[in-house]
Amino acid sequence: MTxxxxxxxxxxxxxxxxxxxxxxxxxxxxxxxxxxGVSSVPLRQTCKAVFAGLAWSDAAAWQADVLAIxxxxxxxxxxxxxxxxxxxxAARGFQTTEALPMYEEMAVTGAWWDHVDNIAGPRFWxxxxxxxxxxxxxxxxxAHDDDMWKRRSAIICQLHAKEKTDLDLLYAAIEPSLExxxxxxxxxxxxxxxxxxxxxxxxxxxxxxxxxSRLSGLSRREALKRIGA
Length: 229
Fold this sequence. Notes:
mainly alpha
C-alpha cells in the first residue's frame, strides 16, 4: 500500500533526479529495478528534509512507514530511502528483535549487496546490543539459512562492534559458509575478519592460519589486507 509519506518520498526524489545518470547507475549495480538518477548526497539530503520531525507512537507505526516505501518502490532510490528511514534518530527505541522480521524481508527481497550491507552492517549491531541473547540466536540460525543474503547478514552483523565483538558468534556465523564458492559470502567473511583485525590482528592471523585450507583466497586476502600474514 502506498502511503502519503511514500508518495512524498517519490515526488521529492524525482525533483532532484538527474535522469541522464540513471542508466549508468542501473548498469553499475546490475539492477533489474530502474533508477531515477539520484546520487547518494542529494538522496540523503532529500531524506533528511522529508523525514525531519517524524515521530511514531510505537514500533508498528514506524515499520509500516518503512515497509510502505520499500514495497511500493518503483525505483531503487526509494528502497534506499526506506533504509534511511530505518536509521532515523526517532526510531532508536525500536531497534529490537521485533524489527528483525522487517529487516529480513528487506534483505531477502532486496537480495543484493547495496541493500543488505546497509541493513546488516549499521542496523544489526544496535539489535545485538539491545537484545543480545535473542539476536545472537537469530544470527546463528541465519548463518545456516538457504538464503545467501541472510547468511551474509549474519557474517557482517558485528562490523560495528569493535572491541565488543562476540568472537564465538563471528566464527559461528562464518563456519557454515567457510567453504562456499559464493563470491558475496567469501567477500563477507574476509570483510568481517578484516574489521576485527583492527582490534586484534594476532587473533585474525591465528584464525586464518588455522583455517587456511578451508578459507578461499579471497577471504584470506581480505582478512589480512591491513595486517599482513
